[in-house]
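Researcher: Go.
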Amino acid sequence: MDSAIDLAKLPPLEGWLPIHVDWDQTPAAVDWCHVGKRRLLEPFFEQTVEKCLRDPFNLLFRHQSALEVLTQWQRLRPGLPPNGFIFHMSRCGSTLLAQMLATLPKNIVISEAPPIDSMLRPKSRGVTEEQQVAWLRGLLSALGQRRNEEEKYFFVKFDSWHTHNLTLIQRAFPKVPCFFRYRDPREVLMSQLQHPGLHMVPGLVESRPPETSFSTNAPVPAEERCVQVLASICTAAIDQLRTGSGRAVNYTELPDSIWTWLREYFQLDYSVAEISRMRDVAQFDAKTPSLFFKADSERKRNQLTALGREMSARWLEPVYAELEDLRGGQERAQAKTAS
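Model: Structure:
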């Protein structure tokens, strides 16, 4: 598909990261940002990009390319292959897990990167699944470029609504182990009611709620919308987990799971000192690392409104129970294999 001439014409992209996929252009294009050897240590990808864009070099020199450059660059300079994919219900400790991994110089961690979201939701008509798969592979190859000699492992934490894209993602990366993190639904619901995510705002993200959910003639209570969006995310994950692809991981398993069975699941080699370093990170708030972590599960459950409890019992708790059953079955199968 790509010729040697195309490769020869590629711009020098060492030290550059793709930060935006622009579907409004014809043809669609990719915006790049120069990061040099900077490690991605912020809780979210876009926070690192915001800091890099303040650099005078990035203010003066912007780079944009055609989407095909992603696949061409992958051929010329493939990045690290992904070691693991993190999917999640939202507000369930996935950011902490990403921060724990990112603290080690040997890990590249991409956390909820907007260009991945754009790639999974193309606005351009006529984009085939084959093209999406090729571009997604090229995009992750560019994001997984080694910028330092120590870098050895590569992880991607997707946005919560990307469980709806699991089939496409696993078609692009069939051998990459993944898991789905979830939490007591009442706690997640309360967190979303206090600080709604993008997918809770109607029209911002296609979150695919069940067809039976909302009345078209009356305003929908926030509790109902949040519950049904969360249920749709969990249901999509359950459908994939039932095929035997991926693991279910409860919020209560963090942080210990990262240096127990998850290390083996992702086939990682961490020293005692590195595990100690990750333990230190677990003491702090994942989204605000300058603050110490404070357990809030009981407070969230107690603060949930009566309508929230009713909606959770109706829509969320049955899928939570199903996730727990799946997790239990996976743990029993693992124990049987180990013995």
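Model: The CA atoms of residues 118 and 305 lie 35 Å apart.
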